[in-house]
Records
---
Amino acid sequence: MNGWVGSRWAVAGARAGTPREVLGAPHPLLSATAEPVDPTDPEIVAAAADLLATLRQETSTTGLAAPQIGLSWRLIAFDTRLHPRSRSWAGELVLANPRLASASHWDPGREGCASIPGLTADVLRASRITVHGHLPGTGEPVTIEADALEARCIQHQLDHLDGLLFLDRVPGALSLHRRLHSCDS
């Protein structure tokens, strides 16, 4: 999958999008399971555009999920190209109804979250994953193979869709850290 994927759905008729406020914990939407969507529904396409516009505005963030902008829908956006620890890059992408198909090579790594500013934690995640989803607008099926930071970012967003925060995956207080700089994922 290459960097053109994110642009293809935008060309398919999505509006520019409006950045929205990112909800902070303990907002109830952040602990609820998000609902599946019809990726061709114009309301979903508009929400995908807003999610992407919000991600672009949050310059120190590599991904966002729809619940973080107040929508209980199974949509995630991610773009890891500028992060110094990024190896794979699927593009600036929004996926509808993403699901993890495979995960391997589990490693601990530092994570942060736009919904929990000021904290990071060491979280165990797969460093190689395969994810299936659909492009908003066309509904075209997409398979993403990601590694390293991009894999971590996608798994973090998938957790949001299931009502989990990265703090739910922290083994104990010694794994928590104050956020020191924007390179924390």
Note: Helices lie at 5-11, 42-57, 148-161.
---
Amino acid sequence: MREQFNGQKGLVTLKDYEAKELVKSIFGKNAEKYVTSTTHSKGDDLPLILEWLNLKDDSVVLDVATGGGHVARTLAAKVSTVFATDLTKEMLSNTAAHLKAQFKNIHYIVADAESMPFLDNTFDAVTCRIAPHHFPNPHDFISEANRVLKPGGKFLLIDNIAPADSEKGAFMNQVEKLRDTSHVRCLSISEWRTLFQAYGLDEVRSEQKKKKFLFSDWVARTTENQQQRDEVEQLLLNAPEEFKEYFLIQISSGKIQSHQIDEWMALCVKK
């Protein structure tokens, strides 16, 4: 955790800048895929977001790294106002084009999750779904989420997580990075909990589950060419048997059919 806690908030390193520019490039080119992706648009966690947050009709909510806008859309039907932010302007513009006609209470803002353009104590809730593994400095993100929340406000995180076993975690992140060069790192549950505690968020509820990916759809979403797709497949095919069992890698006729990873949903309250 040393590298994660040593970042100085507000000071953007060349490495961080390059990582964020890569995110903009990858997601800008694939914006429509994230609107239509069934993994993102039809997850069974979407109905749980409303249930877990249990917000009032007049609530003002921030959805960080909104991507295809699936959380923002879910929230907008139940609360007063949603601010949907994303680092990638092209992604946000595409999402707005899909949602503006139906939802008039969503505001779209290009913003960095690690340095948000909002005043302290602004929001009743902050959400972030399937995005933090792209953030170079997750400690800054959690610090910012806490800062913009009202006292007693709710923070809901959903993301792919690394197994507690360090070797399996390293393998998972290697696969993800090879498939999507904008991937930074999936954290483990213990690492997220350390950050929650460090930045004033009390975890009140959480749930872990397996999430299945059909290989052909999953690998095509962010790869640039067939060679890259083949390299990802070979990495999975050559995985140790223990890893194949853990990630439930399904192989037929020498081709990867599917695999599964861990996803974690956690609800916190600002102290």
Note: DSSP finds 13 helices and eight strands in the chain.
---
Amino acid sequence: MNDLIGKKHMIGDASFVIQHMRSTRSTSMPRAHSHASYELYCLLEGERVYLMNGSVFTAQKGDIVVIVPHELHSTASSQVEYFERVLIHFTPEFLREADGNVLRLPPFQESTLLRVPVKEQSEIERLLVQMVAECKEEPSLYDSYVRHLLIELLIRLSRMHAVSPETPGSNHPMHEKVAEIMGYIHAHYRDALTLEQLAKHFFISPAYLSRVFLKLTGYHISEYVRVVRIREAQKLLRTTRQKVTAIAEQVGFEHISHFNKTFKKVAGVAPVRYRQSHKY
């Protein structure tokens, strides 16, 4: 089967984006990232390694990964290199004209991997294929129909989660170890964490930990610690009135100048500008 990198189809000001892709080669995101929209990663064939929530998961044929806004995540090839997926990004505003209340239901409060039952997979795939076709052909009222199809998909996912709320993990031992280390970083990001300290704590050689962590996440350990700190700072800037200096100290920075420089490097803007561009 030939590779396919389908066009990204957008509705409105990128309030809805969908792309169909298949690949026979090893691929991965250069590093974990986040965005302000919801993401649905729908795996039609193959297997993928997905990083989110400071954990690592192995997605299989039929699985759908739900990523909530501002969640750090990435994907990479497993030992099974071939895969086919449909990727969807959408904002809550895209649904508000119809029924945005579905986003108040599980599993849309936190990122998760949903294992779609085999008997449901053909119907889920039908919805995805129809959305891609509507966006590609753009018949009359296609945007309304795509919104309708997306809501049906979200309702089905919510019902599946209600039946089986547990998230499957990874089937690779080293992935589980990296997930454990990432979880430790997320719990202790305020501390002075180093590669050597983490390697000693988890009984792994620093060189091996550095190599495996970089391959899976796209980050060196020190980079990942900084990114986690800045993500926490972004959350506080969006949801509280705390002063920037207090937030910097709270997320583990001793000097405000270092915090400002790191924040701008990771987020692309200064802390004050970031707060101004996000509603309280």
Note: The beta strands are 4-5, 9-11, 16-23, 38-52, 55-60, 64-67, 73-77, 83-90, 112-114.
---
Amino acid sequence: MESLDLLAHPIRLRIVHAMGGGRLLTTSQLCARIPEASKATVYRHIDLLVDGGILEVAEERRVRGAVQRHYRLRQDRAVIGPDTVRTLTPEDHRRAFATAMTALLAEFTAYLDRDAADPVADRVGYRQHALWLSPAELDELIVELRAAIAPKLANRPGPERTQYLLSPIHFPMEAPRPDNS
């Protein structure tokens, strides 16, 4: 299964989100992060991600007679490359965007359902800005955003850190006008 097919599912995308930052998690821990899905569903999606090379077994431990596996995300495989993006149809983009939004909504709902959820204290944000940009300005903005975000992707969990989901989305709202009005 291609990375796009593997990642274009809300449960698998949430598993990938949970595994970020070099975390090692068990299936039970992932089930706890995705309580609205049955354990069988989470197990099935983990197996698909392992078979597709996006997750790997980092270690195995014997716990009360059973083997407990800790999984690790293969960040290099959890991406959709530019060559694949160039081949996508508008329907493929629509499906991928819907999956991303479904996973985002599920993650936000899970956050709000926690007893200690405090959007103000947690600095939750969901602003949208309509910008006027030339192609060169958009390229510059993308480079600047990547430069700001990329080093933080290597952060590991720690006592002072909370995992945040950041979802930059950009698309043209209208076609450029020749008279710039």
Note: Helices lie at 3-7, 10-18, 27-33, 39-51, 82-87, 90-113, 135-149.
